[in-house]
């Protein structure tokens, strides 16, 4: 009896995690206290302007404000919001019939955002893969399974509904996207300055060469 109980403890540890919150998160519809144990199928929701953290064996997940998830043994089911995942146990995130999974057992850092029907996956350290089926209503064998690799430093955006796969144009290098955004702002500012200068320089001369 003693041997059986002792052997079961490690398995129980892998099936639970600890929720860290300052009292601004809900656990299964009720306010959660700091360092609360959570188990498979438990639902965690963060409030506006407040975040929380889930620590599991080999993984930690930061829930940004207004995020709703369901905890499972080997995955986090994201209903909506923004997650930051650090895992060395290949902890995956599932959104509807879309699964985001690390491609290595080494430490992997990635973010998943699902807001207003738009899914954003950003790989920060090591690669992740996005697996999706043609339809959530189809039986597993009938639904076509496809995947897209997101390399470290890249991000992928797509609709969170089950359907067609992300197109190649949906994959964007995160660093390039930031540079493009900065260049756009600089170019826009330069254009405004040029237009303003031209208007001021011309304001002293009449449009017609002849004075009224």
Structure write-up:
The chain has a single domain, classed as Jelly Rolls. It has 212 residues and is an alpha+beta fold. The radius of gyration is 25 Å and the shape is globular. It has helices spanning 2-14, 174-202, and strands at 17-20, 25-27, 30-31, 36-38, 43-46, 52-56, 59-63, 68-71, 75-87, 92-95, 98-102, 108-115, 118-125, 128-133, 145-150, 154-159, 171-173. The protein has a 17-stranded mixed sheet that branches. The longest helix has 29 residues, at 174-202.
Summed up:
The chain has 212 residues and is of the alpha+beta class. Helix content is 20%, strand content 42%.
Topology:
Layout: H1 2-14, E1 17-20, E2 25-27, E3 30-31, E4 36-38, E5 43-46, E6 52-56, E7 59-63, E8 68-71, E9 75-87, E10 92-95, E11 98-102, E12 108-115, E13 118-125, E14 128-133, E15 145-150, E16 154-159, E17 171-173, H2 174-202
Features:
single chain, Jelly Rolls, 212 residues, globular, alpha+beta, 17-stranded mixed β-sheet
CATH architecture: Sandwich
The CATH first-level class comes to Mainly Beta
SS-based structural class? alpha+beta
Helical fraction: 10-25%
How many domains? 1
Give the topology string: H per helix, E per strand: HEEEEEEEEEEEEEEEEEH
Proportion of residues in extended strands = 35-45%
Shape: globular
**Rg, Cα atoms, Å:** 25 Å
Task: State the total count of DSSP E strands.
Answer: 17
Predict the CATH topology: Jelly Rolls
Mean pLDDT: 77
Low-confidence stretches: 1-12, 174-187, 190-200, 206-212
Sheet bearing the most strands, described? 17 strands, mixed
